[in-house]
Amino acid sequence: MAGGCQSQFATRSKANVPLYQSWQLQPGDAIAGYKVAGGLGDISIVLDGKPVFAPYDGDTFLDQRGCLYFSTPTIPAYLFRYCGLRSPTIGSLKQGQPLGTATILQFAALLKQPDKTWAIVEPDRTLLQRTLQTP
Description:
By secondary structure, the protein is mainly β. The chain is built from 2 helices and 9 strands, in the order H-E-E-E-E-E-E-E-E-E-H.
């Protein structure tokens, strides 16, 4: 009998794991000319050091992991989380001001729930385009 992990998985077949939810943005898609590397939850976008911009007038703050959160009175029920930013900009911003730069941006749209918690929801493609392009 062989030892280690190899023997444990050698006879297993491939599994089909159906997902409860699918999103429009999928790995391999492009948004504003940038490749989507991953989706369903945080959307991963390959930026190769390019800047990310405030999609609307709003405010930013950092969490304990260094992710930047953006809120705006334009759509007050949402928070937008940007992880992977270098030199993030904190404070009040005008639409189009840089939030920072990223090699790979991890983006999440969070919607406030009735119980005051936040749920990750599929981001709007237009919002991502506003984030990746200057107005």
